[in-house]
Amino acid sequence: MKKILGLVLILFVTSIASANPAARPAAIGVSVLSLLAWNPMRLTGVGLDYGVDGDFSRTRLLWLWDLPNPLRQLGPLTLSGHLELAMGQTAPSPPDLTLGLTPLLEWRASKHWWVPFIETGLGVNYISLTQNRDRTLSTHFQFGEILGLAMEYRNLKVGLRYQHLSNADMVVPNNGYNFYGAVISYRY
What residue ranges in the chain does DSSP mark as E strands? Predict the structure, then answer.
C-alpha cells in the first residue's frame, strides 16, 4: 500500500509540474521525498555534498547503500564502507550535470562519535559537458577520487571532502576539477 501511495503522489505532483513551470522545484522536492519514503532502491541513507573549485561550485544529492560491515578489522582500525550514487550539477552557467558511483571506505580507529575517521574512495563519473568556460575535460567519462575527514553521531554524518575528477590523461587536454567542500548524510 505504501508503494502505491508513493507512486500516486509522484504521478500527481509530476502532472502539476508539467502544467505549471513555476511549481517545478516544489514538485521535484516532493517527488524526491516520496521516493525516499517509499525507498524502492533499498537505500540505507541519503546525503548532500557541496564543493568549490575556483569559479565552479558543485552540489550533489547522494544515495547510500551500506556494504556488509565491518569489512575488515586491522588491529585497532576498523574498515567499513558504503556505496555512494551521486547526482547533481556543476555551476556556473551552463550547468554541467554529473552522475557518479563511488565505493567509499571508512577507516575508523574508534567507535566513539567524537573521534573523526577518514573516508577514501575511487569511482566513476559522467559529466554532461566536456568544455565549461576555461575547463576542457575531453571525455564525458571521468574518474573520481575522494579523500575526506568525517564525524558521525548516531545516524548523522558531517565531514569535509576533497574530490578530484579527471580522465587520468586517457585523452588530453585533461584539466579536471578539484572540489573542496562538505558533506552531510543521514543513515536510516
Answer: 45-53, 56-66, 72-74, 77-91, 96-108, 117-127, 131-132, 135-136, 141-153, 156-166, 177-187
